[in-house]
Amino acid sequence: MPKKIVLAAVTMLAALAITVQADVHLPNVFSEHMVLQRQSPIPVWGWADPGETVTVQLADSAQKEAVADAQGEWRVALDAAEAGGPFTFSVSGNTAVVFTNVYIGEVWLCSGQSNMQWPVSRSVSPDEEVANANWPLIRHLEVPRRPATMPQDDQGSTWQVCSPATAGNFTAVGYFFGRTLHQELKVPIGLINASWGGTRIEPWTPPVGFASTPAVKHIADELSTKDPSSSIYQSKLDNHLNAVESWVAAARANLTKGVPPGPAPAFPGELTPYKSHQSPAMLYNGMLNPVVPYAIRGSIWYQGEANHQEGMLYYEKTKALVNGWRTAWNLPELPYYFVQIAPFKYGNEEPTVLAEFWEAQTKALDIPHTGQVVIHDIGNINNIHPKNKQEVGRRLALIALAKDYGRDDVVYSGPVFKSLDVEAGQLRVHFNHVGSGLVARGGKPLDHFEIIGKGTGWQSATATVHEASVVLASTNVPAPTAVRFAWHKLAEPNLANAEGLPACPFRAGEVPSTDMLAMNVDEAGAYQLVYDADLAKLRADPIEYTEDRTAEVSGPFKRVAYFLELGKEAGSVDQYLYVSMDAFTDDPKQLGIPNFASQISHQKGVTNLKVISNVGSVTTGDAFANGHLEFWPNNYDPANEKQVPGASPAVFDIGDRMTAPVNGHGCMQVHNLDTKQTLFAINRFRSGENASMGIGNSPGHTKDWTHTDTGKQYKHKRLRILVKH
Prior knowledge:
The protein is an alpha+beta fold.
């Protein structure tokens, strides 16, 4: 080939390489039709050649320049500006990028799970809503659903203009929120939709958020351990590589001797990257980090269904999320407005589990610059996706109008518990956010109020409005001490303010502690306590008793007794069982929970049982001649090796067989052979508060509560062990 042609070809390739390398590039959050945040410095960032000077200009505003660093990254901050447009936005270096139809207005992040992802096209009156969606100054950016183990720089979507052709796919809650703001403020609205159905709160939270919250700091530690740039990762990987190198050297030496090398060291599991999109920080990394630090006014959040069994832990995780977002955006007062999830059946789940979650959501109002929307009046107990997103969005907008846009005339919340007065024979509940006054929707008597007093249990209360308070009373509770409101997963209470915003579920006051043993077992006064165990703190090794008096109590004994109480709420007792019997040992330490360390093992008959219980299926009385104990730390099977009368060799019941290993599943069971009943059972101690336990025969495929995992449904679970000399 002639030299001139070769030289020309080389020159063209070099020029092409320079052109490719020199292209100025921005993340896709900057695009045609975007909305930039008004009244705030506007961060703009991107990539160029190292050392390249980049100039950014919005309309006729002052130009801002930056020089790309050694990694080719650059960033500027445009001056704050008022709402307006359309504008031209340009970025130039060796090449130029120009975006038109750009507006300045209000930008909000819309995040969460399916109820935030839920589109306009599937909400109430979808055809009408889509047909009327002529709001060209509302813009929507839907972030693609992509998890990532490490923070990503970009995402694959650009801004859309709201129209009947596009609005059907917008986040419905975000759209109706933004539409209300647009109508009230008369400024452009930008909605960044980062949502994913079924997701938990953890994947949306950045590592710095977990690190800032002591209750979940262990998650930050796990993330740091999996981060290849962290010192702990590098140290652990170095140790692993040294072990592998030593194994390789030994394996090669053994190879020459014809000796098997043995297994290679396994890669440390704690260094293995997360794979699930539900794992901590995965959606922050893949979906939110690419839009940070795009200027926003605030955030709205609709999530919780996937975490609803966690009670107050969700409050801690919410703190982590909010702290993390505020740190990432460098906005310490970033608004965070959220939706309390709606009543829903949740299968056979206990009714108070959801109420305790609502309590945790409401607790998040303690975090500054937050607000909550309550929607139990517009939910659907048969559908986890209530379709009335219009009102959800409107209520979120009310909070923003009041808290961020100076609308002092806006009532933005329904009644929220303020304080409780205990009065003669009644309770008085005071509320904040009463608006123009407390009312009962539909004009019916107020419902879903319950009160409790000593020895009464929870009772429905008559509720009467008195100005900014509600007075509660019940003929069944002569001296009430505590109240709970809407404390049920299906609760759709009618208390609201005159503006139509519903009251928030709550509980308050002091639930009286009642000693069910003293109340229901006359002979208990003649017995002496040996052990008191909080089974919510049950562990396989060691067993930690609330009280252990074995050093004070000595045999011989005449009688031994066990009293188990179970309640689905902390401090309450729904079921109890007392059983006493002739003493089967004179060693008090042989009466306790038979974990492996205790060396307790009893598979024997006991005599002269007395049984007292409030469980209807249990046969009670004081003249049962024959009982049977199954106390051991072992595994076991149904085989009736001891030939216990009435026991099945095929079903876990009153006569099972100990098997290996000794440090196994474990059980603590007392049976009444005369009635062929399990009186009580506590199995699988190593599962802690999720251990299998129950009173009476289990209604499932086993009769002695083996493999039932029932312990998790009880918040109160207490076992007392007593002796009589």
